[in-house]
Amino acid sequence: MAEPSPAQAAAFGDYQLEIYLAGLSGTVPALPMDFANLEARAAKALPDTVLSYVAGGAGDERTQRVNVAAFGAWGLVPRMFVGAATRDLSVNLCGLSLPSPLLMAPIGVIGLCAQDGKGDLAAAEAAAHTGVPMIASTLSMSPMEEVASAMGATPGFFQLYTPTDRELAESFVHRAEKAGFKAIVVTLDTWLPGWRPRDLSTSNFPMLRGHCLANYTSDPVFRSRLGGAPEHDTAGVVALWVRIFGHPLKWDDLPWLRSITDLPLIVKGICHRDDARQAKDFGVDAIYCSNHGGRQANGGLPALDCLPDVVEGAGGLPVLFDSGVRSGADVVKAVALGATAVGIGRPYVYGLALGGANGIVHVLRSVLAEADLTMAVDGYPTLADLNPQCLRPVLVG
Asked: What angle do CA 154, 157, 159 make, to 5 degrees?
């Protein structure tokens, strides 16, 4: 295990020193340091309708729960006499040099999780501050151009919900290119909403109330489809959105998607080896293993259990991963199982709900600090030192 040079190492673990040193003058963290308390406090801060959308999953939410539990089934094997005084968490993803494998996964209602309705911009600001890329959702309270601008020098990705209208899809992609996004992430499993009892019990679906549609109302193709209705006509906007939102993609659509952009193309929602292999054959640049955090379909496998097969099928392409990630230790385990980059979702939403952009920064820095310190204590100086042989099944609860 070769140690990186000090110049290569980002001392993410130093965040704990900042906290301890601040404690000497009586300052303690304003936000929780663990996910359970973060979630509990955010549940009191968020409106019930927003909380149900963010925290809820499909069906009885079993898949959501096993996504989280799957990480506990693996333990990292400590290695000694390694001297991991510095760690290198940097990765190369689709030609981008990133300081860590951490990403902010796309969250369609992140805008509503801020009191001012500008949560997309707050997340972008947190990306600018931390260097953690944000995958900006099609469903946004702010137009993609404003979100991209707020990211500063940190690269951002644009997540595309492919509409049935190809001209609109191409407009979204070309706007994302012009705005400076560095990749297009096409979500495959959300062309219609899954069965979500929490949302159904409140009869609440934010987009049907006109929320998170700024990328549509700011788009010239979408506006041309309104048939003369004004952009502020919420009923007209929503009616059009319902008609064109989701296209159930087939393999025949992939060459078209590949043809409309020179940006790296990443396909999200892949959980089967053969799907990963075929997507590679169609020319995608990376595979994103995810089951949408258990929000779309209940009764499935934990996404983490699918990851090794997806990595094998990807045949050397980078593999992104999310679903169930709650901590820095989870990030380390996902990398050991083959992920190049690892997205978190609900943790940073809860940070936003409690502390705005600064709350997201706190969550991101906490996750990175734990990942860094876990690698230090367990003797893994670089991400390249992590592989499936570093993990063992945990046989006790």
From this structure: 150
The candidate with the shortest Cα–Cα distance to 183, out of 94, 280, 98, 260, is 94
Q: Is residue 1 part of a domain?
A: no
234 within some domain? no
Q: Is residue 2 part of a domain?
A: no
First-to-final CA distance of the chain: 31
Phi, psi of 282 (to 5 degrees): -85, 0
Domain tally, the chain: 1
Residue 20 included in any domain: no
DSSP 140: B
- Considering the entire predicted model, what is its pTM? 0.95
Owning domain of residue 39: 35-213+244-386
Query: Is 292 one of the annotated active-site residues of the chain?
Result: yes
- Catalytic residue (choose from 129, 174, 247, 292): 292
Per residue in 8-42, pLDDT (tens digit) is 344 999 999 999 999 999 999 999 999 999 999 99
Nearest to 212, CA basis, from 141, 159, 127, 270: 141
